[in-house]
């Protein structure tokens, strides 16, 4: 029997962190057109922190995300466009507006232990006729039993796909296998996996997820995403083709858009440098990287020390302010 996988590209959302939320409409059009030509089934467009993320706390978007979603839809009418939404950041009105702009999938994201807050957004997403994902972030921070408990809540609210999201790029392949297999055995939804490459494990972890039963996997072109980026979409498509796993994707135009479009505007190539390695090692949210670098510069302290301390504190998304507090304390030589 031929196996098939749905590939979801997050260049135009997770990549937005690395682009400092400054995607132009033209860049989005060019990437979306390429993804459409390559027959990529799903791709995500929005501020890096999801709908409504444009703010002082997370960074203002240079271009309104609804305008970017509408432009992407025009360029890739046959791909399904997803938007991420975090309850507490994106409102129900943001979700309705995104539907008018052209999304067909909502990915409702919460911290791994906080699925309760996704109820209203998941229910609304279903009412709006969207394909609905529960996106459990920072999956390394909870034992598998807790993951199952939280996933079951999302399933009961109406989620059709539940993601194990390795936001920090901290999971090891055997841990991914265990988590995905447990979901497969205990939850009735489809299962997805989202990786970050901070420990150079994103591809290995993605394959572990697929072998354990995930049928949705995320990637970004040239790995353009937070921290060291995500599993590289075009590489993943090539690997799946070699494994005779059906994705429906045309490899050549995908490689073209990665190299002729994305590589031309990305601020730097996605490598694992000292700081991004520490994200994975210490279990820190990948989108904290640029904040830590900024704080290190501002207070004249070492960015790796900040990230190690943030990892020890088990900081979670929404606690970006802590990064600056830690930097200030380190500059003053004050221990926690
Ligand atoms: C909400 C921000 C975050 O970037 C979502 C995500 O992609 C992750 O947790 O990895
Ligand atoms: Mn991510």
From TrEMBL:
Catalysed reactions, as listed in the record: (S)-4-hydroxy-2-oxohexanoate = propanal + pyruvate; (S)-4-hydroxy-2-oxopentanoate = acetaldehyde + pyruvate
GO molecular function list: 2-isopropylmalate synthase activity; 4-hydroxy-2-oxovalerate aldolase activity; manganese ion binding
Domain Pyruvate carboxyltransferase: 5-255
One record GO biological process: L-leucine biosynthetic process
Gene3D superfamilies with a match to the protein in the record: 1.10.8.60, Aldolase class I
Annotated site, Transition state stabilizer, chain positions: 13
Binding positions for Mn(2+) per the UniProt entry: 14, 194, 196
Keyword tags: Aromatic hydrocarbons catabolism, Lyase, Manganese, Metal-binding
CDD domains in alphabetical order: DRE_TIM_HOA
Catalytic residues in the record: 17 (proton acceptor)
InterPro entries: 2-IPM_HCS-like, 4OH_2_O-val_aldolase, Aldolase_TIM, DmpG_comm, DRE_TIM_HOA, PYR_CT
EC numbers for this chain: 4.1.3.39
A Pfam short name: HMGL-like
Binding site for substrate: 13-14, 167, 194, 285
Cited PANTHER family: 2-ISOPROPYLMALATE SYNTHASE 1, CHLOROPLASTIC-RELATED, HOMOCITRATE SYNTHASE-RELATED
Database matches in NCBIfam families: 4OH_2_O_val_ald, PRK08195.1
Family: Belongs to the 4-hydroxy-2-oxovalerate aldolase family.
Protein name: 4-hydroxy-2-oxovalerate aldolase
Lineage: Bacteria, Bacillati, Bacillota, Bacilli, Bacillales
């Amino acid at each position: 029997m031929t196996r098939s996988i749905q590939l979801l590209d997050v260049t135009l959302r997770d990549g937005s962190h690395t682009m400092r939320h400054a995607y132009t409409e033209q860049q989005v059009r060019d990437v979306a057109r390429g993804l459409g030509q390559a027959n990529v089934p799903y791709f995500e467009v929005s501020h890096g922190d999801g709908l409504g993320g444009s703010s002082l706390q997370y960074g203002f978007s240079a271009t309104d995300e609804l305008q970017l979603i509408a432009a992407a839809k025009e360029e890739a009418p046959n791909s399904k466009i997803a938007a991420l939404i975090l309850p507490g950041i994106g409102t129900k009105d943001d979700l309705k507006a995104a539907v008018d702009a052209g999304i067909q999938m909502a990915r409702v994201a919460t911290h791994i232990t906080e699925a309760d807050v996704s109820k209203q957004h998941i229910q609304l997403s279903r009412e709006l006729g969207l394909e609905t994902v529960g996106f459990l972030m920072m999956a390394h921070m909870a034992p598998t039993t807790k993951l199952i408990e939280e996933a079951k809540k999302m399933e009961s609210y109406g989620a059709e796909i539940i993601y194990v999201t390795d936001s920090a790029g901290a999971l090891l392949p055997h841990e991914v296998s265990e988590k995905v297999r447990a979901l497969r055995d205990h939850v009735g939804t489809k299962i997805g996996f989202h990786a970050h490459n901070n420990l150079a494990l994103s591809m290995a972890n993605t394959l572990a997820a697929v072998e354990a039963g995930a049928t949705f996997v995320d990637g970004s072109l040239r790995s353009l995403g937070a921290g060291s980026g995500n599993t590289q979409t075009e590489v993943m498509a090539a690997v799946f083709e070699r494994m005779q796993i059906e994705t429906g994707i045309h490899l050549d135009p995908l490689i073209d858009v990665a190299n002729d479009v994305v590589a031309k505007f990305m601020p730097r190539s996605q490598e694992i440098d000292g700081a991004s390695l520490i994200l994975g090692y210490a279990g820190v949210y990948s989108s904290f990287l640029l904040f830590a670098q900024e704080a290190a510069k501002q207070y004249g302290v070492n960015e790796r020390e900040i990230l190690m301390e943030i990892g020890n504190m088990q900081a979670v998304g929404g606690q970006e302010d802590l990064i600056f507090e830690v930097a200030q304390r380190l500059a003053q030589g004050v221990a926690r």
